[in-house]
Design brief:
This protein is mostly helical. It has one domain: Up-down Bundle (Heme Oxygenase, Chain A), CATH 1.20.910.10. The longest helix is centred in the N-terminal third of the chain and has 28 residues. The structure holds 4-amino-5-hydroxymethyl-2-methylpyrimidine.
Length: 226
């Protein structure tokens, strides 16, 4: 069963159609579940993902700046905390076990796919408003939540990527997805009313679709790095 991350997300997800499928069922993702993903591809991805998360945290911090309510601020600040103090620990721990220390993670050169994605999200928030930023952030947060839940139920028992899967299937990560989804529903209603009839709906859907496409590119970058 698909997790419920709110009605705005459900609408955006349906609107992204085939692209959402390409993202959440990418061969890289299937390789994590089956355990067949080459280790070199995984580590290449993980180092890039560490850098991604530093910029992703900056974008969520911009969410605090663009908030209009204390509730929005709390969710954005809480997501920054979840990213920098929890999710990134997986990267640090897994890379440490492979002899890659945190200083070299922080200093890693960004792949262009990584740069394109994170700066696109940041610019969506700088150029646009809070909703533009949320539409660009949602595929990252919720996509990994959905992938984590699905892989947890279908993974091969001997995949070496069980820790990765557990990080995103974890109730703590799922709670982030649920509370972000609820906050986005309230933020949409407050600013533009019913999304189904809002003139801005197609612009927000475009942001969501572009971020989804950039997620596909991110997985592909991982595979190309093997
Ligand atoms: C590329 C990417 N998207 C989303 C997440 C989830 O936070 C992540 N760690 N990396």
């Amino acid at each position: 069963m698909l997790p419920d991350y709110g009605k705005t997300f459900a609408r955006w997800r349906a609107g992204a159609a085939g692209q959402w499928h390409d993202y959440t069922r990418h061969p890289f993702v299937e390789g994590l579940g089956a355990g067949t993903l080459p280790r070199t591809a995984f580590l290449h991805y993980l180092i890039q993902d560490y850098v991604f998360l530093t910029h992703f945290s900056r974008a969520w911090s911009l969410g605090v700046v663009k908030s209009e309510t204390l509730e929005e601020m709390k969710i954005c600040a809480g997501t920054v905390n979840a990213l920098v103090n929890h999710e990134m620990q997986l990267h640090v721990k897994t890379c440490a076990a492979e002899g890659i220390d945190e200083d070299s993670l922080f200093a890693a050169t960004e792949a262009v796919e990584n740069l394109a994605y994170t700066r696109y999200v940041m610019d969506a928030g700088l150029q646009g408003d809070f909703l533009d930023l949320m539409a660009a952030l949602a595929p990252c947060v919720m996509g990994y939540g959905e992938i984590g839940v699905r892989l947890k139920g279908s993974k091969s028992s001997d995949t070496p990527y069980a820790d990765w899967i557990a990080t995103y299937a974890d109730p703590e990560y799922q709670a982030v997805c649920t509370s972000v989804g609820a906050m986005i529903d309230t933020a949409v209603a407050r600013r533009i009313g019913d999304l189904a009839h809002a003139p801005r709906a197609s612009g927000l859907q475009d942001r969501f679709n572009m971020a989804t496409k950039l997620e596909v590119g991110f997985w592909q970058m991982g595979l190309n790095g093997q």
